[in-house]
Amino acid sequence: MRQAAKRVETTLSQALAQPTSGAEKLFAAMRYAALGPGKRLRPALVYACGQALGGRAFDPASCDAAAAALECIHAYSLVHDDLPAMDDDDLRRGRPTCHIQFDEASAILAGDALQTAAFELLLASSTESALKLNLLQELAVAAGGRGMVAGQAIDLDAVDKTLDLAHLERMHRLKTGALIRASARMGALLGGADCGQLQAVTRYAEVIGLAFQVQDDILDVTADTATLGKTQGADAARNKPTYVSLLGLDGAREKLDGLHGQAIDALAQLDGETRLLRQLADYIVQRSH
Ligand code: GRG
């Protein structure tokens, strides 16, 4: 993860280095959002899947644009999620949220520009054209109204409602799962995955995506504010359904164990070197922030 973080931060830093004249504040807000102290989980998945499928011939540089594009979309989603019209959060990654550090209009624009920067990064990459089109499609579908944005809409609609487990799962598959799935699939495509391998990677990513959210819900009620980098119990306090509110803490932990097992089973279908993917699955269920 450290190596992935270093690579993606270098790519993002270069991509956002030259502000458009007169739009210095916009670029400062974009850099603040994209280069803040995040875990870079999605880039790590891109590189790990690329390596698992690409084997010895794998060159991490081939994944730099995809990794940075995913982090741009992720950063934009967090900036917009924190806005007063959405979750209205003051704290993110242990620092003031983008609209508190700058102002609301700048945060909206920084999110907008980060979203399109993702596609610019992919378009400017030296990836072969047919593969590039596949990557663009993966990202566009995962990020938009058939993926993450749809999940966010369902989530906002769920406040004060009772969702059952199937509904909750569908919302998370879209809201956080779609981008995690796209990260793994884009890495696998860059590593030259065939159809069967892509299916196994997709299954792995779908279950770790859910596991990530279950652990997020557990941490929301168990970790302290300093460790979390955000307000503890924020999701529960917003009266949104969570895995903990539906299953209880022990039930959510059991669910997490089951998903971890399914991720390891999915990796058994891959013939490549899957050590890093196994470690990422372990990290997702054991993480403390
Ligand atoms: C506003 C269009 C739009 C979408 C927002 C993903 C999302 C949709 C909102 C995020 C809300 C949230 C905090 C969800 C919980 C799971 C999650 C995505 C946490 C943040 O991701 P991490 O932990 O963040 O990978 P870092 O800071 O490490 O990059």
Automatic annotation (TrEMBL):
Q: Which cofactor does it need?
A: Mg(2+)
Gene Ontology MF term list: metal ion binding; prenyltransferase activity
Query: Per its UniProt record, what InterPro entries does this chain match?
Result: Isoprenoid_synthase_dom_sf, Polyprenyl_synt, Polyprenyl_synt_CS, Prenyl_diphosphate_synthase
What SUPFAM superfamilies does the record tag this protein with?
Terpenoid synthases
GO BP: any one term: phospholipid biosynthetic process
What UniProt keywords are attached to this protein's entry? Isoprene biosynthesis, Magnesium, Metal-binding, Transferase
Q: What's a single GO CC term here?
A: cytoplasm
Task: Identify the PROSITE patterns for this entry.
Answer: POLYPRENYL_SYNTHASE_1 (PS00723), POLYPRENYL_SYNTHASE_2 (PS00444)
Member of which family?
Belongs to the FPP/GGPP synthase family.
Q: What is this protein called?
A: Geranyl transferase
Origin organism of this chain? Answer: Microbulbifer thermotolerans
